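Question (not urgent): is this output format expected?
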Amino acid sequence: MKHNSRKVTIKTCPKCRTKNQKSSRFCKKCGSSFSGSTLKDKKATVLAAKKRRSLKGTISIAVIVMFLVLIGSRLFKKDSAVNPAMASLPEVGNRVSYSGQAIGMTDIEAVLEDGRISIPLDAVLKNKIVRFNYEDKGLSLPLLAYITPSGKAVTAVSVCEPCRSTRFHIKGKTMVCNSCATEWKLETLQGIKGGCLNYPPDYIPSLVENGRIWIEEKTVSQWRPRV
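Got this back:
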């Protein structure tokens, strides 16, 4: 004799955990609505997923912002490093306005005596930017001197190492490489734009005395390229 068997499916009340028939709309024990609970659970699940996605997005944006701030601060710090020797240079003339001007180098002769290299201060004040060579025992090194807008005399090695240029010009408030067109601030030699920002004319200390600018020969002879 065959007996008809029917598979009875049940569902558990999410509130009191009582087992109920699948067709039941309400829990037989606590009376909770199954349809309402299911809808509520689905809504909670969707909201939780949205919250997780929102949190992940917020964290990602925060990480990106922190990264950009870190990179920007490092670049700013690097660009803000002013040579203290340049900052303390005395004024040798009146303030100069280079606005709208482009001034090329004027070549002059330097004198070497008693372990010092010297050039006339008047030549620098007149021409604004000059170039001269140090030559001794087979060594030849181009040097430059210029007047900043604040009236200070700056001396440096006239070389932009990456592009091997030895000539520069003044354009407004900037020093510009004739070869790669990289620009630096005249007052500080800080990079502004271009491919050789970290390689401006390398500042060397000098002394103004008796109408001439004096540079220690030892400082120049021991100079080595930065790259």
